[in-house]
Amino acid sequence: MGPGKTTTTRTRRRAVPWLLLGLWVAVLAAVGPFASKLADVQHDRAVDYLPASADSTQVARIEDQLPGGETTELVLVYHRDGGLSSADRATAARQIAEIGRENRLTGTPHAVPSRDGTTLMYPVSSSAPGTDEKLRDDFVHGVRDVARGGDGLGVDVGGQGALATDAAEVYNSLGGPLLYTTVAVVAVLLILIYRSPLLWLVPLAVAGVADYLSMGVAYGLHQAFGTAVTGQSQGVMTILVFGAGTDYALLLISRYREELRRVERPYDAMRAALRGCGPAVLASSGTVAAGLLCLLAADLNSSRGMGPMGTVGVLCALAAMLTLLPAVLVLFGRRLFWPLIPAFGSEPKQRRSLFSAMGSSAGRRPYAVLAGGVVLLGALALGMFNLPGALKQQDSFVDRPDSVAAMETLARTYPERGTQPITVITPTARAAATLAKVRSEPGVAGAERGRSGRGWTEISVTADGAPESAAETATIKSLRHDLENSYVGGPSAQQIDLKDTNARDRLIVVPIVLVSVLLILMVLLRSLVAPLLLLVAVVAVWGAALGIGGLVFGPLLGFEGTDPALGLLSFVFLVALGVDYGIFLMHRMREESVRGAEPVAAALTALRTTGGVIASAGLVLAATFAVLTNMGLVALVELGFVIAVGVLLDTFLVRTYLVTSASVALRRKVWWPGPLSRAPAPQAGPRQQEPVAAGRG
Predict the structure, then answer these.
(1) Whole-number Å distance between alpha carbons of 666 and 321
(2) What mean pLDDT comes out for the span 97-107?
(3) pTM for the full model?
């Protein structure tokens, strides 16, 4: 190579990282104005979570079109254990009158006394907030400011509007605490893994950049395609950016450290690292994205919206970790690894590897290890039978807000009647006949005609049964069966639709996820048995994680119900993320087999060389999802717990012991029907030095 060409090559090596940094600065400048707008399009109304085709969704949409738009329904509850006094009743009447003067109410509130004389219930509604969530929250807080008790008189503000406001406050509080907690958890783990005062900052900062980019892309997705943006989906997107992004960073930095010992220049070492681990990272991220996009087949709005949001998070993390991270690492050079700097030509310190010991036991007794693991996972999965029933609205908060206190008081003091309305929407031309039919239905305590507009009329129905009881559920189903050309909605109907639609979505989405992931794995691994082995493993992990949830949610955490979406969402995430780690292991196992290693040696070498990286990545991913267990909604706590436990099971039991043991037991059959299953693999020249585990110097 001549001097001129050498100079040109060196100039290019210096220029490429700076060009990538400049490109990222331009991208962030372009998406910055949109990223800041994502919070403005986040909505957590019932219609944003409801199934697209359900009766309750149609009711919510038609109510938006009626005069005054969507109504905010509240229930003011005045209660005294020993019985209400005349002064208490006067206080209640005075406060209700003041609320009526300060707000534009729909109708005049009337008191409904309980039979035991301890409680007064005032249903209050207003159409003034419409669909504006801020106006709704202002209305609820304004009513709460007026409705105050004292001297033994308890006053609580409940109803659907109050529940929505309390839930929105939890979701709005997720942004800051969720991000800060996630960053803190990842930072601590990276410091422990790398044992460097500087290195941990780089992947963490790059993950922060990816998160900012994902917010801008998610906003664009919403504007272009109307993708639902909820507090839940935005929180999960942030978790995926930091969790999956840090996983990719761990794999890349581990390979880069290895190459720095063999290659003199950091630029060339990074190119070799990207060639070595890039295909596995691309394949694993593609598998996760494909699994999440299967949620587009769901009918539930919240689940369907989470698919694209999660995919955006994973792909933005991938783009940052394969372009921005390498550029920053090359610019800092070897000194970034201080004090454990990988010198050119040096050898890593040889330490006894935990994963070598695990592999040895799996290699000596593969059938015993495999049988023991299967029995353990099966026993844990039995805990699913102990999962509590469907989560009710009043049980959806970790802490007990004012709206839940009101619902509990109403359930206790009005056991003989419903305390929240069932809404029937019927064509105006049939309104009189529908009203008469509703009043004749068994289980209906009363019905009143409400607003009319655009060819539709609203009928408010009171059931005999308590909210979300078996009696009220039977009434709702009876109304839906008997009323022609009408829709039946309201809070309790929404919960029925959520439960039914989640059951339907599981039947549709789960097979699509399994088939999609299987096809990707078959293409990547050029085998049928290995992909089936990985899929069976991750499904077993999902069952065991749910089973552990059944042993913890009710008995230890005191949760009264399970979120209907838990099964589907945890399945999609655990299958996609679990296969992600399986790709790292099996891809290296196949690489060793192609180089000529015997099946047992290939399996054990793959575990020894990737085990440290997979363990570090699993710890980070589990810790990021565990952040959700500190949030204020039971659904988020349950989802975060099941995914975190599943990732840990997959990392330290299934991936290290069971998949390795099965591969040892199957030997070449694991690659059936590919060429590796039929004949010894051809020699491919000298073997590369095995990479060291993440964090090892």
Answers:
(1) 35
(2) 88
(3) 0.82
